[in-house]
Amino acid sequence: MSNTLTPFVYWAQTESQVTLKVDLTDVKDLNVDIQNNLLKVTAYGQGARGWNNYSFSLNLHSPINPNESNYKVIDRQVDFMLKKKSNGWWPRLISYPQKPSWLKIDFDKWKNEDMDDNEDEKRDICYDYPDTFEKLLTEEFGYKKEEYAKAYLVIYNIFQFVGFFYVIAVMGIRFSRDGPDSMTDTYMVVGNLFKSIQLLQFLEVMHPLFGYTKNSSLISFMQIGGRIFILFCMIDAEPRIQNKPIIFYLFLIWSMVEIVRYPYYITQLLNIKVSFLTWLRYTLWIPLYPLGFLCEGIIIFRNIPYFEETKKFSIFLPNAYNFTFYLPSFLRIYLLLFFLPSLYTVMSHMLQMRSSKLRNSNIKRAYT
């Protein structure tokens, strides 16, 4: 006779009962022993190791009522219904914490404590009850497997934080050493690095499309695209604006926003709650965003005569596309018609996020 093996057993629970699914087909010679805290099963059937004798024994976490418990043999499995002696949610199926490898979670039948046993609506434990799903994963695998997406996002946010922190550190050290004279060559010293990390932010437009984050790709594109326009079209393309002190102030404001934003995202990914960092993330922007927009407006305004002189980025007739574009006129229209509405849109969006994130009264009382 073949050696006795152990079949895969899948379990789930409601407040009043435990269900088991034994993964055996064409079962013969089934022997079941149901006791108050013990379930023993032996049978001959086809399991993961083919045709063989299979058996298992479960020392249950809490007592059951053997008289009200039952089982049913069908072609593809053996189903058990174990009636709990006292209603309540068990933290695990068995009495000891070390779960055997053949005992699995039956996610399809699992119910959450917030769900009614008689609820007809089909629920997805993964999406409807993510906290419970993560607890079940911890029990199932013994540890929580970090997703590749989360690992990537943590690395990305750390890299961006280090980049912006380096920019603001270099600017601060040079200012403490040389005073206002250091402002004139800010772009020459940190401009290339700033362009690199700013271009990397376009990944944040792609993250929602890949399902990595829940942000709006459109809003991210508007915010990052606006910065790219200022950085590459208004600053990098016109050397005469690069040595103005306004570049120092703009880089300082942008960097201050980011060295708070990226650590906040890292703590969110790692499920670490830092109340002060949350408050800072959704409060520091209140003075910095208007100041940043003001700096951008000054740069655009001062660049208008430069682009009138150089005609850079302007398109004149005749051309193959029969199209004309005059950048100085576009910049004037933007400042007159779109600059303040853009600021209003961004500020309104951030105020809504702040209200949502700081809904916890403890945070408000502590830091407002």
UniProtKB/TrEMBL annotation:
What keywords appear on the UniProt entry? Coiled coil, Endoplasmic reticulum, Fatty acid biosynthesis, Fatty acid metabolism, Lipid biosynthesis, Lipid metabolism, Lyase, Membrane, Transmembrane, Transmembrane helix
Task: Spell out the PROSITE patterns in the cross-references.
Answer: CS
Enzymatic class: lyase
Q: Note the InterPro entries from the entry.
A: CS_dom (IPR007052), HSP20-like_chaperone (IPR008978), Tyr_Pase-like_PTPLA (IPR007482)
- Residues annotated as domain CS: 4-94
Q: Which SUPFAM superfamilies match?
A: HSP20-like chaperones
Q: Which family does it belong to?
A: Belongs to the very long-chain fatty acids dehydratase HACD family. Belongs to the p23/wos2 family.
Q: Which GO terms describe its biological process?
A: fatty acid elongation; sphingolipid biosynthetic process; very long-chain fatty acid biosynthetic process
UniProt function note: Catalyzes the third of the four reactions of the long-chain fatty acids elongation cycle. This endoplasmic reticulum-bound enzymatic process, allows the addition of two carbons to the chain of long- and very long-chain fatty acids/VLCFAs per cycle. This enzyme catalyzes the dehydration of the 3-hydroxyacyl-CoA intermediate into trans-2,3-enoyl-CoA, within each cycle of fatty acid elongation. Thereby, it participates to the production of VLCFAs of different chain lengths that are involved in multiple biological processes as precursors of membrane lipids and lipid mediators.
PANTHER family (alphabetical): VERY-LONG-CHAIN (3R)-3-HYDROXYACYL-COA DEHYDRATASE
This protein is called Very-long-chain (3R)-3-hydroxyacyl-CoA dehydratase
- Give the enzyme's EC designation: 4.2.1.134
Q: How does it sit in the membrane?
A: Multi-pass membrane protein
Q: What is its main location?
A: endoplasmic reticulum
Pfam families on file: CS (PF04969), PTPLA (PF04387)
List GO terms (cellular component aspect): endoplasmic reticulum membrane
| Pathway it works in | Lipid metabolism; fatty acid biosynthesis
A single Gene Ontology molecular function, please?
very-long-chain (3R)-3-hydroxyacyl-CoA dehydratase activity
Task: Identify the species of origin.
Answer: Harpegnathos saltator
Indicate the transmembrane segments per the record. 151-173, 216-234, 246-264, 284-304, 325-347
Which reaction does this chain catalyze?
A: a very-long-chain (3R)-3-hydroxyacyl-CoA = a very-long-chain (2E)-enoyl-CoA + H2O
Q: Where in the cell is it found?
A: Endoplasmic reticulum membrane
